[in-house]
Automatic annotation (TrEMBL):
This is beta-N-acetylhexosaminidase. Keywords: Glycosidase, Hydrolase. PANTHER family: BETA-HEXOSAMINIDASE, BETA-N-ACETYLHEXOSAMINIDASE. Pfam families: Glyco_hydro_20, Glyco_hydro_20b. The keyword Hydrolase applies. Residues 126-477 form the Glycoside hydrolase family 20 catalytic domain. Its EC number is 3.2.1.52.
Length: 507
């Protein structure tokens, strides 16, 4: 029996095998059947047809959300699910039952497409199984993002969280604000090497950069196509527009929205003290942006950031200070709480789930706001006690911009060590979360911040195989075979077949 990651809930081997015929009859299946046909055709030239004697998809409303049942006999394959996602995850399991070359561009011999006879019943442990990709600090081309979606689907991850805006670049066109792309998507250069240690305010900037123009954005048509492809694979695309901090790219494009003028998006990293002004104009800008984002990502939750927002400029900026007096805010923290309430309420009024980083717990946000916890794991329970749904994204287990091993050949990262063996402890943390409060723990996700990631080759090196372990834990509830390279050997051959630049050193 092949190694399956994530591991199904139950697997019963029955003896015998089923050889996929060509053409392969497929009955039903929708998107799941379409993706299966796509992969079989690409790798092995297998054609599909309608009919019986091959693969049959059936609807079973008694199964839970995203669950499936699959039976492979010598006569054919039957897949039952209550929804499209469940059928899609069944197809991903079926592909893993085939030789690893099924993930390649081919060619492979169609006669090698033989599936062992098994009965599998499977369902996910957590609803939110995510992958966060920062495409703002360094723009990552669409081609690699499409491949990342396929890797997510292989691992039954169902949410891709795109960090689309930051101090260093704005990556999404917004109706009525053309300068966000014209000026906000490109910076004149990038800091060479590692960011220097922070100054006393932890908001340091550096004037030196490499002088190489850096920019890029996704068109509205590209975003629409990406959302459609993700949906076919059972993945929801969640956009993040970070505010009111991490907004230098906005202030560079529209100086009137900031407290001080900025010539261009930030050329280095660290926390910037240049934030949006506390003015009606800035708040209305944010509302307009989020309204347009909602049209580009129909039905999706919307992440509004809320992290790392120094308020020094608000105290020194006359219009922002006037707003603080009007709303009764005596500190920047109170002023940000007011801002977050305005923005989160706007998203909720659009009948969308709104998500914010855990800093928002300090000042309070409207009920219905989902809190994404990154700084300290204890904040998960804090959010639940406050009545908020929570998503775990703890730095200590899920920040893949940290080093994957201690070898001298490891490429430059933000710092810190997060080997595969430590990532395997995420499920223990999730199991320890208590049941107090009205909020629910939706699940978790891993994050890739891109300060030191300029292309997909490096992104994949940092993402995998650590991403395999997180996916395994979120689906099955424990690290299982995905806690060390030795027990993942067969699965890693699938990544190789797909052409991924995964990291071959675990510690």
């Amino acid at each position: 029996m092949r190694t399956l990651i994530p591991e199904p809930t139950t697997v019963r081997e029955m003896g015998g095998e089923f050889a996929l015929p060509s053409p392969l009859p497929i009955a039903g299946g929708g998107n799941a059947a379409a993706y299966l046909a796509e992969r079989l055709g690409r790798a092995a030239g297998v054609r599909v047809s309608e009919g019986s004697g091959g693969i049959e998809f059936a609807h079973d409303p008694s199964l839970g959300e995203e669950a499936y049942r699959m039976r492979v006999s010598t006569e054919g394959i039957r897949i039952e699910s209550a929804d499209e996602r469940g059928a899609g995850w069944a197809v991903q399991t079926l592909l893993q039952l085939l030789p690893p070359a099924i993930y390649s561009a081919g060619p492979m011999e169609p006669t090698s497409l033989v599936v062992p006879c098994v009965e599998i019943e499977d369902a996910p442990r957590y609803h939110w199984r995510g992958s966060h990709i920062d495409v703002a600090r360094n723009f990552l081309p669409l081609e690699g993002l499409y491949r990342h979606l396929e890797m997510m689907a292989m691992h039954k991850l169902n949410v891709v969280h795109l960090h689309l805006t930051d101090d260093q670049g704005w990556r999404i066109p917004i109706e009525g604000f053309p300068k966000l792309i014209e000026k906000g998507s490109t910076r004149p250069g990038t800091l060479a090497g590692h960011q220097p240690p922070p100054d006393e305010n932890d908001c340091d900037d550096v004037a030196e950069h490499d002088g190489i123009e850096c920019g890029g954005y996704y068109t509205r048509e590209e975003i629409t196509a990406l959302v459609e492809r993700a949906g076919m694979l059972g993945i929801q695309v969640v956009p993040e527009i970070d505010m009111p901090g991490h907004m230098e790219s906005v202030v560079a494009a529209y100086p009137e929205l900031g407290c001080v003028p900025i010539e261009h998006p930030r050329t280095c990293w660290g926390i910037s003290e240049h934030v949006l002004a506390l003015t009606d104009e800035a708040v209305e800008f944010c509302r307009a942006v989020l309204t347009d984002v909602a049209t580009l990502f129909p039905g999706s939750p919307i992440h509004v950031g809320g992290d790392e927002c120094p308020g020094k400029e608000w105290v020194e900026h006359e219009a922002s200070r006037a707003t603080m007096e009007r709303i009764g805010a005596t500190t920047p923290a109170e002023a940000q709480a007011w801002f977050e309430n305005e923005i989160c309420t706007h998203v909720l009024d659009m009948d969308r789930r709104v998500i914010a980083w855990d800093e928002v717990l300090e000042g309070g946000v409207p009920q219905g706001t989902t809190v994404m916890v990154w700084r300290k794991s204890e904040a998960v329970e804090e959010a639940l006690r406050a009545g908020h749904d929570a998503i775990a994204a703890p730095t200590e287990f899920t920040y893949f911009d940290y080093r994957q091993h201690a070898g001298e050949d490891h490429p430059l990262t933000i710092g810190g060590n997060l080997p595969l063996s430590k990532v395997a402890g995420l499920s223990d943390l999730l199991d320890a979360v208590g049941g107090e409060g009205e909020g629910a723990l939706l699940g978790a996700q891993f994050q890739l911040w891109s300060e030191y990631v300029h292309d997909w080759a490096k992104a994949e090196y940092l993402l995998w195989p650590r991403g395999c372990s997180v996916a395994q834990q979120l689906w099955s509830g424990s690290a299982g075979n995905a806690r060390e390279l030795a027990t993942m050997e067969e699965h890693l051959s699938r990544l190789t077949a797909r052409g991924l630049n995964w990291c071959r050193t675990a510690e």
